[in-house]
Amino acid sequence: MIESINRVGFQLTSWIMAAFERVSPWAGLIFFSLLTAVAALIAYKFCSNQKALKRRKGIAIGRLLEIRLYQDDLPGIFGTLGRLGVATGWYLFESFKPLVVLLAPVMLLLFQLSCWYQFRPLQVEEVALVSIMTDETSALDELDLQLRSSPGITIETEPFRTRDGREALWRIRGKAQDPEGWVEFEDGNGVLRKSVSVAPSGLRPVSKQRLRDGHLVRLMYPMEPRIPDPSPIKIFRLNYGDAALYIGSREVNWIVALFVLSVLFGLILQKPFRVEF
After folding, report:
1. How far, rounded to the nearest angstrom, does the alpha carbon of residue 217 sit from its chain's CA centroid?
2. Hey, where are the domains in the chain?
């Protein structure tokens, strides 16, 4: 089930993001913000009591305005704050159902977009660490730790084993552009491969981890398939650098940007959709 969700979601997201690959990363983020806003408006329209929501919202705004009315009356302000808290609670209660409906698709969208916006590909001549971790019942001594790579990637070190004998690390370097690169080794049950992207700066998907266990965690890394059983490896990781999104010279968190843009689009489209939220 998780594999199917990841595969279909990643294919759809890749198809859309391909249109924005050669333009600013903001283009894709704006598109998905608009999509999120439209989905939120539809959820509010059909999954909430619009009349009750409008009434609760009006009451909450009225209580907020009372604070200005009682700004010189400290006991009055405290009383108004209490009434504002109650009014806000009722407003959130009316919003609860559409928010629950939106929770799962929005989280899945964030997991998919993280492939493009959370991390960036390796640059040519940039070094990175590749690591594998076994489960509690296995040890690295049982494995042939001979890491192989695609032509654009050089493996610079022998495996370094941690003291507990469950993790091994290699240093690799991107020697040439290799957007579809990889590293692999024999895990005792077959060849286990991890994608490695060496590419110029731009909007390209990367996968930091390939995992064996954990349903929710696997949803967070949807680009690569699950490590199959009965492999002793539970994590195959590459420490990509963080991607950066800028407004001028100021760096902006992409999730914050997506949220703010979604709210702005929601406010703009609120009247055309005839929705209260």
Report:
1. 11
2. 2-118+249-273, 127-242
Q: Which residues pair with 57 in a beta bridge?
A: none
Tokens of 79: 């009383």
Q: What is the pLDDT of residues 114-145, one digit of tens each?
A: 999 999 999 999 999 999 998 887 777 777 78
In the chain, the amino acid numbered 57 is K
| C-beta of residue 84 within 8 angstroms of C-beta of residue 58 | no
DSSP output for 188-212: SSSEEEEEEEE--SSS----SEEES
- In the chain, % helix, strand, coil (3-state, to 5) comes to 50, 20, 30
In this predicted model, what pLDDT tens digit does every residue of 164-193 receive, in sequence order? 878 999 999 999 999 899 999 887 778 889
Using H for helix, E for strand and C for coil, what is the string for 128-161?
Answer: EEEEEEECCCCCHHHCEEEEEECCCEEECCCCEE
- For helices 74-117 and 2-17, what crossing angle results, to 10°? 90
Under DSSP, the state recorded for 119 is: B
Q: What is the DSSP letter of 118?
A: T
Q: How far apart are CA 58 and CA 6, in angstroms?
A: 41
